[in-house]
Amino acid sequence: MCHTLLLTRPRPQSIDFLAALTSGTGREPDHVISPLLHICYTPVTIPEGVQAVLFTSANGVRAAGSGCGQTALCVGQTTANAAKAAGFDATSANGDITDLAALAIQHLNPEAGSLIHIAGRHHAGDLGGILSKAGFSCQRAIGYEARPVELSAEARVTLVDIPVVVPVFSSRSGQLLAEAIDDIKPAELTCVAISESAATPLRGRASVVARPTRAAMIKALRDLL
């Protein structure tokens, strides 16, 4: 039996990811979009004298507004693309926050000015702590909040009736998915997580892609679908 893809990211990100997943294949998988999070933004003004802005999601880019050529280091290529579109001089770490911190340490000078990490109210890892140990001053600014949303009725029926594949992109969405399916007996659920932290809340019910990147997630899902 064919699997149905369940996308639980906020709707704009889900639509964008579905387009990337189907690009060049000529085939769109059966899918249901049922966001588990709704993003509420708080605009952030980047202080004068900051040598670089750090982004761990495209949501942070949206909160920052126009980059006007400001240097930005981004956790992955998707975030870097969003930052470039917003006018930042962006570079991707092509990984997770450890890779992002390593990129900052390699290419920036602690004496050249402070850093600002525009993040969500709920975020994983301690990017500022890693950079502080390397001698950087890194301020964290809250640019958005991801508020929980219940699974739709369509998603619940789909989970009960047919095999479903769910990509999981963060520990928070993993936790919300785990809570949502506690009351459901899925027919057949396959979860694919972008990182160990995203997989952990699902208590062994998720595999982890080889690299924490969109490309790795797309490859894993294409193999399943």
Give the overall shape, derived from the CA principal axes.
elongated
Q: What's the CATH architecture name of the largest domain?
A: 3-Layer(aba) Sandwich
How much strand content do the residues show?
15-25%
Structural class: alpha/beta
List low-confidence stretches: none
Terminal residue distance:
11 Å
In spatial order, strands of the major sheet run: 3-8-7-4-5-6
User: For the report, how would you describe the main beta sheet?
Assistant: 6 strands, mixed
**What proportion of the residues is helical, as a percent range?**
25-40%
Q: What order do the SSEs take from the amino end to the carboxyl end, as H and E?
A: EHEEEHEHEHEHEHEHEHEH
Describe the overall structure.
The protein is of the alpha/beta class and 225 residues long. The chain has helices at 11-22, 58-64, 77-85, 97-107, 127-133, 153-161, 171-181, 196-199, 214-224, and strands at 4-7, 31-33, 37-41, 52-55, 71-74, 89-92, 115-120, 138-148, 163-168, 188-193, 206-208. It has 2 domains: 4-36 and 149-224, 3-Layer(aba) Sandwich (Rossmann fold), CATH 3.40.50.10090; 40-146, Rossmann fold (3-Layer(aba) Sandwich). Strand 9, helix 7 (171-181) and strand 10 form a beta-alpha-beta unit.
Summarize the structure.
By secondary structure, the protein is α/β, with parallel strands linked by helices. The chain has 9 helices and 11 strands.
Annotation keywords:
six-stranded mixed beta sheet, five-stranded parallel beta sheet, alpha/beta, 36% helix, 225 residues, Rossmann fold, 9 helices
